[in-house]
TrEMBL record:
InterPro entries: Cadherin-domain_protein, Cadherin-like_dom, Cadherin-like_sf. It is found in: Membrane. One of its GO terms (molecular function) is calcium ion binding. The gene is 106067567. It comes from Biomphalaria glabrata. This is Cadherin domain-containing protein.
Amino acid sequence: MAYNPDQGNGEASYLKSVTTIYVHITGENEDSPRFLVRSYNFSISESAEMGKSVGKVTAMDKDHGVDGIVYYYLEAQSNLKGFLIEPLTGILRVSSRPDFESSPTVFLSVIAKNWGSVRGNDTDTCLVSISVIDANDPPEFTKAIYYANITENSPPNTFVTNVMAVDYDIRADFKQFKYKIMSGNVPERFQISSTGRIETSGLGVLDRETTSKYTLVVGAEDLNDPTII
């Protein structure tokens, strides 16, 4: 406010100037995140591919703005169990193929952390239990390469070698498979039994001067889910 003494009539007058002040009240990061429930239960097939979503955990923070953002991460050894968590969504995903036979149930400890900072403890923890559903695993050969020798002109049913595959499934109906010569047996000079025994078929004669080496590709075919390895 300003005073003007000269008005010409001997009277003093006041000149006014007005302004507006906006006062914003800034909040403090007062609250830490809290999980909606203390434990979660999910399930996933052991045949699930990497990146497959398992489930989602959720924690809430009463603060507003950036102070209310929650950051999720796995605690310590939980990072080594084949799963990961998206930091800003709480979605759990498969990071390596689960195995029912070795770990039918996986337990994870998930931490929710305050994005900003508060006094004292600004984290909360929940337990996640993931049940791994048994799937039909393919059989696996005990060796990648086999070597064998046989004399030319050998008679039918002459032993060549044995191959072996193992199916680690627990369920009996998932453990059934058969052997099959996939390629390299042209003409059909060899045959394979249900036990993995390879022998001469008797369909023609083995002649070293004609063919000195055969490279046979043998598969183990699951009878319930025909995946050949």
